[in-house]
């Protein structure tokens, strides 16, 4: 989406240019000078997380990650790359669709009534630096969910409108990544304002950069760049192409909607239910899960009350509570609901899959449940059942 102020007048930027490390810091400063809060990856508490950047020096230069089902570790890199790591525990959802939002507050008046004040939507202009192609797709999915349908969410709209997106193409997929299977990477598809591809080789450390919007071109025109050379273009393309061939995971090469719809009574659900804790970690780290609930709180006197919206999870027992009882009372039914919705019935609601192949749910599951493994197991069971007929 575009800058609320619109594109500035200025020289047109070339289609592709090269930005060095110093130019990356200039990019952060230009965005800050234009009134934007710049968010990007930093190393903190043993993980690569998203936080506000004062300068590009805070980026995780020389840090990568080791991933496996139920396991995450940061590790040093020798090449000094800034973006050679895969998705961390946070996604951009944390900023666009925050975990907790106060909706209104009420105070008792002396006459016994209440004055209710709706929470004002704060003005914030974000710039997201380091948006992976899978997360770029996730933001587009959230756009459809939160602002593209009949019911538009004002909190999301206030944060999303005008957000400046700087995508970084992947050249270093994680062991749990499967974005190729979901058509969400490792190359950046349209939807960004600027796209970077990091290159570190004998010719130095640099970023191939291209604009994807008028706002992106306006910002790019203010940066110290040089025309892209063939060696940088070739190295950037090679890195992205190699990443596509080194995915750590994959989905079965079938129509996942059909597979999920035909597997509702599969025995595999019993197997995964024996391991699932129903903790909801997978929904919390997922960049597209959006479910919420509301809670009302008061002070001890009862003179002040607030209503908060917070994230909820289909793994919570009360999530499907209706008059008369809970609809999904077992871990089997709750895991099945999550996976079949994410890979299947999401299409009926929003026109696409709800999964982008980032692998976060695999990494941050405390028992190491791997949705790609479950999809393959369901496919094998369906194939065996078909062969037995």
Topology diagram in text:
Blueprint: E1 16-20, H1 21-33, E2 37-44, E3 47-52, E4 63-68, E5 71-76, H2 93-96, E6 100-108, E7 114-118, E8 126-131, H3 133-147, H4 154-160, E9 164-168, E10 194-201, E11 204-211, H5 214-220, E12 225-227, H6 230-244, H7 256-261, H8 268-273, H9 281-285, E13 292-298, E14 304-311, E15 321-322, E16 325-326, H10 331-350, H11 360-363, H12 371-388
Parallel strand pairs: 2-8, 8-9, 9-10
Antiparallel strand pairs: 1-11, 1-12, 2-3, 4-5, 6-7, 6-14, 10-11, 13-14, 15-16
Summarize the structure in short:
The chain has helices at residues 21-33, 93-96, 133-147, 154-160, 214-220, 230-244, 256-261, 268-273, 281-285, 331-350, 360-363, 371-388, and strands at 16-20, 37-44, 47-52, 63-68, 71-76, 100-108, 114-118, 126-131, 164-168, 194-201, 204-211, 225-227, 292-298, 304-311, 321-322, 325-326. With 389 residues, it is α+β, with helices and mostly antiparallel strands.
Written account of the structure:
By secondary structure, this protein is an alpha+beta fold. Helices cover about 30% and strands about 25% of the residues. The chain has helices at about 20-35, 95, 135-145, 155-160, 215-220, 230-245, 255-260, 270-275, 280-285, 330-350, 360-365, 370-389, and strands at about 15-20, 35-45, 45-50, 65-70, 70-75, 100-110, 115-120, 125-130, 165-170, 195-200, 205-210, 225, 290-300, 305-310, 320, 325. It has an 8-stranded mixed β-sheet, with helices on both faces. The longest helix has 20 residues, at about 330-350. Residues about 1-10 have low confidence and may be disordered.
